[in-house]
Amino acid sequence: MSEEMLLVEDLGDGVQRLTMNRPERLNALNHPAAEGLLTHFEGLRRRTEVRVVVIRGAGRAFSSGADLKAGGTPEALRDGPNGDWVLRDLMKAMRACPQPLISTVRGAAAGGGLAIALASDVILASESAAFHPAFINIGLSGSELGVSWRLQRMIGLSKAREMLLAGRPLLAQAALDAGLVSAVTPEAELDDQGLALARDMVRAGPDALRLTKRTLDLALETGSFDAAMEAEERAQMLMIRARSRG
Question: What CATH number belongs to 3-201?
Answer without folding.
Answer: 3.90.226.10
